[in-house]
Design a protein that fits this description.
Helices cover 0% and strands 51% of the residues. The protein has 130 residues and is mostly beta strands. The strands form three sheets. Strands 1, 2, 3, 4 and 5 form a five-stranded antiparallel β-sheet that branches. Strand 1 (14-16) and strand 2 form a beta hairpin.
């Protein structure tokens, strides 16, 4: 076991890029971050912030194009970011949310959980398989 990072308060969400060459981690509470760590020869390198100012980031997932879907617990939304950190879309719900994952026969269904509820939305692209 090797420590990758000690500088994120309450790290929570964790995902890999489709090629497995970037590790994404989010955390930080009310002023959260999404951080990317390059993986070289199986070892995560120094992380860099892709997105700052996330509102209690929680779970996350990645699609086949490498876009990152981050749930923001208290903001009651899921935001989608490009691999470069550019915001692409926002999905609002009416409760605090906790996690997201792709599923369905074609992996084009995005499932979102939170507040005792499970939502789903059909998307036009495939999510990364686990």
């Amino acid at each position: 076991m090797t420590v990758v990072e000690r500088g994120i308060a309450n790290p929570n969400g964790v995902a890999l890029s489709p090629a497995g060459d970037i590790l994404y981690v989010n955390g930080g509470g009310e002023h959260g971050v999404l951080r990317a760590y390059p993986i070289v020869r199986g070892v995560p390198g120094k992380g860099r912030d892709l997105v700052k100012g996330l509102a209690v980031p929680d779970g996350m997932t990645v699609d086949c194009q490498g876009n990152i879907y981050v749930t923001e617990h208290t903001a009651q939304r899921l935001r989608v970011f490009s691999p470069a950190g550019k915001e692409l879309a926002t999905i609002k719900v009416d409760a605090n949310i906790t996690n997201a994952a792709f599923g369905g026969a074609d992996r084009k269904t995005l499932f979102i959980t939170g507040a005792g509820t499970l939502w789903h939305i059909q998307l036009g692209l495939t999510g990364k398989a686990y």
